[in-house]
Amino acid sequence: MQGLMMDFPLTLQHPFQRATTLFRRREIVTQTDDGLHRYTYADWGKRVMQLANALKQAGTEDGDRIATFGWNTYRHFELYYAVPCMGAVLHTLNIRLFAEQLVYIVNDAQDKIIFVDGDLVPVLEKLSDQMPTVKLYVIMGDAPNATGKLQPSIDYETFIGSQPTSYTWPTLDENTAAAMCYTSGTTGNPKGVVYSHRSIYLHSMGIGMADGMALAERDSLLPIVPMFHANAWGGPHAAAMVGARVVFPGRFMDPRKVAHLMIDEKVTVAAGVPTIWIGMVPVVEREGLKFPHLRAIYCGGSAVPRALIENLERNNMNIVHAWGMTETSPLASLCNLRAYQEEWSQEEKFRVRAKQGTMLPGVEFRVVNIDSGQEVPWDNTSYGELQVRGPWIARMYYHDEESSRTKFADGWLRTGDVATVDEDGIVQLVDRTKDLVKSGGEWISSVELEGLIMGHPKVLEACVIAIPDAKWSERPLACVVAKPEFEGKVTKEDIIEFLRPQVAKWWLPDDVVFIDAVPKTSVGKFDKKVLRSRFEAYSTAHD
Ligand code: ADP
């Protein structure tokens, strides 16, 4: 027997409709070079439709890839809805990628138009010769350093300015592609992930749930995570669906500026990688900043060190750990405390909050022994590769049969993350398979060591990498950044003695080197590849 419900397509046209009618007076704020830009969802909606008309007039057809190369701004948010609602595909380009990767991605996706923020025009000018599919560049805002080489090009406001403020959206199948984003490609070429209307819709509902990010109309959301990185974790899409106010930081990403924006604009929910919060704690403490409106910071992309959770808590800031990947839209799990944990001591709560948490409804998972392929028991100790499936998990990569076969075997996404699971199904990532330190046939978690070292009061950041070792195969090397006031005043012995009571003896790093800063990837994660090559010579000497 069939259910007797309407076959209502889950497309982005529905949240668009809600935002512009039910929530028409809610505000969208953007930090710009000329101060704060403000308008309402009603204004936004008109411009989204003007943009759709302009794109149509420029020859955009169903399924065309329309790219963006920009910061988190209201214009980017207009593109987030105009492009998919009209049946085209929004391709968000990572503005920090290396030139060759950028060229590869634009050509692989066959982008037809690129919308570029004015200050970023010089980056594309150097590459446009190698991007033959691009027929038009639309420049957003002033471009003081442009040479005029991007051709043909048009200013965004001119592009949409004379267009009608209404547009009749076409009827779309919910499985139509809405957006695409390439993984940063730590190995090999970047891989394209193509989101559908349905997957974005369901992901928005998932993260909106109370044990997700609990997004509500009364929230003011600050997406610090870039809109070019996995749809800014889905925040902007979900915000329109529920009518939350949105505050965009623009290109002003330094922790102090962001902290003041959060206070001035009464931000209730912020989302960003650990790096930004690690950088913000000293500012908050130095200036005695208070965030009376903030209810949660959602943080993921790399492990949230326990010390960061404690440091923020000390300043009355609540950070919630989340896990996901570009391939998982990206949010798959969050660590909100369970009812029975509320009674626990602060110490135990911190320990749990450093875990990646509980999968959202819609996401199924299993943890599989790396050698035997058997599912590991939920005993908080056995570990294996985390695999997930669900309606907002990719089932293959764009144009890449080979990686698709290896990463998406038997209907599960092989995440490449190694995890343990406790008796109640709470997941903790131990490491990435490629970052584990393989010592004498046993594994050492680089992430756990980093988290512990970052708990040392004189340490700002720590990154642990494997170095080759003749006897043990690999051994851990800790690369440590001292807090500025303790530069030169913390030693290898301090770190080792600090770790000694906390880990098994054979986990202790063989050496601790002090560096100025941990190199970061294009999305702000610790770049272990760079550190490994920097310490290649060290490994040889060590052998
Ligand atoms: P990239 O592979 O370029 O880092 P993604 O941004 O898709 O691309 O990153 C996904 C990966 O980031 C995950 O597979 C995982 O290794 C890591 N990650 C994301 N969130 C967390 C987290 N909360 N804790 C630990 N690692 C995380």
Topology:
Layout: H1 13-21, E1 27-32, E2 35-40, H2 41-57, E3 65-69, H3 74-85, E4 89-92, H4 99-109, E5 113-117, H5 121-125, E6 136-140, E7 153-155, H6 156-161, E8 177-182, E9 192-196, H7 197-208, E10 220-223, H8 235-242, E11 245-248, H9 255-264, E12 269-271, H10 274-287, E13 296-299, H11 306-314, E14 319-324, E15 331-334, H12 346-353, E16 358-359, E17 364-368, E18 383-389, H13 401-407, E19 413-421, E20 427-432, E21 437-439, E22 442-444, H14 446-453, E23 459-469, E24 473-482, H15 492-499, E25 511-514, H16 528-534, H17 536-542
Parallel strand pairs: 1-11, 3-4, 3-5, 4-8, 5-6, 6-7, 10-11, 10-12, 12-13, 13-14, 24-25
Antiparallel strand pairs: 1-2, 8-9, 14-15, 15-16, 17-18, 18-19, 19-20, 21-22, 23-24
Helix pairs in contact: 1-2, 1-8, 2-3, 7-8
The protein binds adenosine-5'-diphosphate.
